[in-house]
Recover the amino acids of this structure.
């Protein structure tokens, strides 16, 4: 029987704040809140403001809403953001972002580079990709993946850049690890190509 190494987990569930930008986002937020209430254990959930990690979940059918939200979020140590996107063909939960990294531009470059098939989430120039009716199953699946990511965020080895892509059908989920592009101005602070050289 496999057992988890106790040294790899901190046992701290982060403070989870959900922001809903539309009907899909509201359903995801409702499911996450209900899950937290059902599974809250005394001493497990830290008090806000005590140096505990915070996970800000931005759920929307619009990529612009979900990715631009952390531009205004105060990026203090231990604050993570998690965009949750819906399209008629699937879900994208992640990437888990620390201080805004990886940015939307890096995600799009990596998707093109590796041919991950994430184009349906970003093909509408910021307009909502989802259909008018929200599937309760897709909202529940997104909430379950949010909670999975929340449990990992509280650990010492939180997986920055981790994302889950679920395609409808066949409802297969796959994990993606998205790294910032090496010379992304936003993620690395590099101003121009000449700054790459080290003397």
């Amino acid at each position: 029987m496999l057992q988890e190494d106790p040294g790899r987990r901190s046992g701290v569930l982060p403070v989870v704040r959900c922001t809903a930008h539309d009907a899909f986002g509201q359903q995801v937020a409702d499911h996450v809140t209900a899950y937290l209430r059902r599974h809250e254990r005394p001493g497990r959930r830290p008090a806000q403001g005590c140096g505990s990690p915070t996970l800000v979940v931005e759920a929307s059918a619009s990529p612009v809403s979900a990715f631009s939200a952390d531009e205004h979020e105060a990026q203090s140590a231990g604050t993570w953001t998690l965009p949750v996107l819906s399209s008629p063909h699937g879900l994208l939960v992640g990437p888990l972002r620390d201080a805004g990294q990886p940015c939307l531009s890096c995600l799009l470059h990596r998707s093109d580079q590796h041919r991950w098939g994430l184009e349906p989430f970003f093909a509408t120039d910021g307009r909502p990709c989802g259909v008018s009716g929200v599937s309760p199953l897709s909202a529940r699946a997104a909430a379950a993946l949010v909670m999975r990511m929340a449990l990992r965020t509280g650990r010492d080895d939180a997986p920055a850049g981790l994302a889950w892509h679920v395609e409808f059908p066949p409802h297969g989920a796959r994990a993606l690890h998205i790294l910032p592009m090496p010379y992304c101005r936003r993620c690395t602070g590099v101003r121009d190509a000449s700054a790459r050289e080290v003397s």
